[in-house]
Structure to design on (558 residues):
């Protein structure tokens, strides 16, 4: 049995057959996970300095030198590393007085902050499978982003209190800007215009309070209100679509959840993308009181928008990117600033970031060539062992070596 | 997926009964169920129906990959989500502690399983749609988000 690190569901029931170091047959792995597992044999990185092949030791020494000489170093990525590597990463940031941030600062960070702070009630995915009768996917399309979400937890499996499952006892609601693959499976699909989620939330609150909704089809909104009122145990799965749409009004979701909890039980589980984003947020929160975007300059942990990757990329004079490809995913201006700073990339596979990096350090792929532990999207800790033998260092070992050099 | 009416429209529709059926519509249904082949319609072999024969052959080509129960899998469309694996009542009965609670199957008794990222069909004779006393169960096709599996 192996654990798939393709997304934050961390599926633990993967069976595979190995043939001379290659994966020949994999069972129970979704297409996304299969692509992730197969990618280990293509586009692997090698240690490089200024695009010239070097030894691993030279690359690690150069990386340490760049970080030590920098006045405002930025350590970014982390969502695709294990808890052990993230722990060393936070210690490294403290030692360097660096800014540390992960992908959540422009993704699910706002929502995760509310969940981890206890302002939004949450539950585990096993609770969802055993007790939930209503699942609401809001601004998320799990059929594409987390292919096994519906089959493992939210809709199709039989749970201890939901033996009749999707046939009689479960309802799935999708709120999205388009009729996604998930929406096609669910009878309750509500279309919202881009940016219309705040109005939609106001309408749902109105319906729950017994008022006439101002937004959307009144009849359908009242139907939605009736479904939510009759729910015994509901779970909202907010995706990036909702977080981006609400912008600075994320407290509206908090209001909705508290209103719903007056009449029923509603939990929130953010649809985290990367397999250990929640792990980094939890570690940093336990250490500093903030979930992301922390600067350790002057020895104190300071949090603020100026320490998020978007702002810090423009002011940093060296950056270490681990397990992420910000040059592909961040806005052009930010990516350009990052590319111009002396960039160190620790990644198992080639990306735009490793192509532009001054120093490239190859690492082992977690779940395949290296083991460790990670936190699933619902806060459950999952441990995994390597299934392939490789002579590559893991993120954790590379960071420990950089720490030693510093 | 192709329908009986689509096939019927391309048949000679002269009710010659040489195929053994009383009408061309009955033959269309038999062709759809793969009980008869295009060669069983002698009129269709007439050169004046060459175009129709060619179109029918193209139309019926996907059915050749269907299982005995009429299940067709389009691997290129499959997400490997496993909805069908968990929803299939035969799978749940075979492995209630695995498929029943959303996990992938371990044994060999199941009908559907995800292998190499796409769904695979096996043990077709266990399917509720198998044999003359079939039940028109559609748990697997109704739960597919990408229409990667369908019945004839």
């Amino acid at each position: 049995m192996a654990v798939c690190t393709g997304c934050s569901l961390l599926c633990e029931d993967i069976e595979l057959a190995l043939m001379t170091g290659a994966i020949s047959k994999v069972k129970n792995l979704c297409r996304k996970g299969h692509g992730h597992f197969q990618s280990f044999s293509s586009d692997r990185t090698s240690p490089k300095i200024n695009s010239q092949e070097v030894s691993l030791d030279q690359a690690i020494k150069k990386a340490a030198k760049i970080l030590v000489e920098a006045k405002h170093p930025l350590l970014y990525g982390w969502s695709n590393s294990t808890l052990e590597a993230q722990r060393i990463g936070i210690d490294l940031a403290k030692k360097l007085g660096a800014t540390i941030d992960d992908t959540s600062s422009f993704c699910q960070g706002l929502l995760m902050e509310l969940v981890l702070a206890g302002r939004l009630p949450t539950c585990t995915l096993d609770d969802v499978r055993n007790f939930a009768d209503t699942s609401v996917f809001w601004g998320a399309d799990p059929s594409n982003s987390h292919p096994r979400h519906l089959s493992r937890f939210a809709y199709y499996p039989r749970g201890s209190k939901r033996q009749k499952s999707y046939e009689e006892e479960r309802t799935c609601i999708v709120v999205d800007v388009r009729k996604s693959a998930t929406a096609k499976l669910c009878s309750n699909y509500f279309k919202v215009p881009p940016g219309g989620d705040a109005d939609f939330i106001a309408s749902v609150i109105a319906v729950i309070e017994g008022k006439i909704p101002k937004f959307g089809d009144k009849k359908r909104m009242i139907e939605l209100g009736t479904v939510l009122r009759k729910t015994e145990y509901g779970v909202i799965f907010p995706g990036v679509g909702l977080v981006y749409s609400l912008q600075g009004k994320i407290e509206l979701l908090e209001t909705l959840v508290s209103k719903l909890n007056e009449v029923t039980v509603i939990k929130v589980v953010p649809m985290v993308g990367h397999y250990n984003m929640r792990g980094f947020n939890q570690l940093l929160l336990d250490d500093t009181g903030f979930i992301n975007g922390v600067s350790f300059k002057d020895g104190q942990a300071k949090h603020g928008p100026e320490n998020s990757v978007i702002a810090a990329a423009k002011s940093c004079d060296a950056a270490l990117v681990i397990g992420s490809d910000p040059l592909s995913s961040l806005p052009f201006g930010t990516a350009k600033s990052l590319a111009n700073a002396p960039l160190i990339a620790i990644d198992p596979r080639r990306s735009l970031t490793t192509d532009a990096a001054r120093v490239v350090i190859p690492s082992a792929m977690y779940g395949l060539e290296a083991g460790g532990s990670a936190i699933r999207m619902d806060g459950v800790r999952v441990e995994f062992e390597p299934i392939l033998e490789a002579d590559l260092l893991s993120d954790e070992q590379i960071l420990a070596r950089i720490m030693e050099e510093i | 997926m192709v329908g009986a009416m689509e096939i019927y429209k391309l048949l000679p529709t002269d009710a010659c009964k040489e195929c053994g059926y009383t009408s061309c519509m009955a033959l269309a249904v038999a062709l759809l169920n793969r009980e008869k082949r295009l060669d069983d319609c002698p009129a269709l072999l007439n050169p004046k129906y060459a175009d129709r024969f060619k179109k029918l052959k193209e139309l019926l080509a996907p059915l050749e990959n269907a299982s005995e129960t009429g299940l067709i899998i389009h691997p290129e469309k499959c997400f490997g989500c496993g909805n069908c694996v968990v929803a299939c009542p035969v799978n749940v009965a075979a492995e209630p502690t695995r498929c029943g609670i959303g996990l992938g199957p371990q044994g060999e008794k199941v009908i559907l399983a995800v292998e190499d990222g796409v769904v695979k069909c096996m043990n077709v004779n266990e399917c509720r749609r198998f044999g003359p006393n079939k039940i028109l169960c559609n748990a697997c096709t109704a739960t597919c988000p990408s229409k990667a599996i369908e019945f004839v």
